[in-house]
Amino acid sequence: MKIIKNVNKSETTNEGGLHLSQAASIKWLSFPYIIWMIGFIILPLIVILYYGLTGKEDNFTLDNIALITDYKNWKSLLLALRLSVISTLICLLLAYPLALILRKSKMNSSSFIVLIIILPMWMNFLLRTIAWQNILEKTGILNSILRFFHLPALEIINTPAAIIIGMVYNFLPFMVLPIFNVLIKIDQNVINAARDLGANSFQTFLKIILHLSIPGVISGITMVFVPSLTTFVISTILGGSKVLLIGNVIEQQFRLGNWNAGSGLSLVLMVFVLLSMAIISKYDKESEGNSLW
After folding, report:
1. Sign of the alpha-carbon torsion through 21, 24, 29, 30
2. Is 175:223 a contact under the CB 8 Å cutoff?
3. Which of 8, 121, 163, 290 is least enclosed by beta carbons within 10 angstroms?
4. Which residues 6+ apart lie within 8 Å of 91 measured at CB?
5. Tens digits of per-residue pLDDT, 71-123?
6. 60 in helix, strand or coil?
7. What CA–CA distance (Å, rounded) separates 83 from 224?
8. pLDDT tens profile 184-198
9. Domain 67-287 belongs to what topology?
């Protein structure tokens, strides 16, 4: 017994030492990203925070943040929230059934379909949006097809509907992949056990599949909602000057050189980003204990 204990103790020590060595290596490998994060994430945020809380004479003020109460800015924020919620719901309704189909399909076919989903993301974001502009404009591809079949043309371009289409197309993969990654980790034996215990297909889906996939759903919602809320490229190209979102207002302020006002409005959007991060950290249980630092 004493020999066995000593062997187990030495194995534990060796395993522990190997684990610590690997952890130390991973920490060193993470330094390039930490430098990148400091230079391109933390420092810009500090600059935005400084300009957002100061006036043109470098005095502390909250007037820049209070600009959100202006009717034009408040209206653009509410419109951005509404379009973001609609786009996120549409992405969820499209992505969840697709993720279920990918889970039930064979590995080769599902990998091919995932590749098709990811493939458009390899193209430049701006080019993808301009392509939808060519499709939806009055003399675009869609209306040309409708005229060919002697159907009435659609006036979608420069409307909120065009912006929603652009958001759904560009951000749908960010909803599919998190849900799919969670669904493929669900043990089939758990589903079979639920059916053996008398649960029908709807009960199995509601109490097992949907419940276990909540972290992926929350992650997908966050990854779609936040960029939809803050985007200004899609609304500029597909909405024109007729649809103004809060991202366009902020972009205009920076373009005019008014960094203080643009930074103050950016801090308002930062609240929604922080709330989304808090929600995803609450439901993403797999990330617990995996921090490098």
Report:
1. positive
2. yes
3. 290
4. 168, 171, 172, 174, 175, 220, 224
5. 999 999 999 999 999 999 999 999 999 999 888 886 555 677 778 888 888 88
6. strand
7. 11
8. 999 989 999 998 888
9. MetI-like fold (1.10.3720)
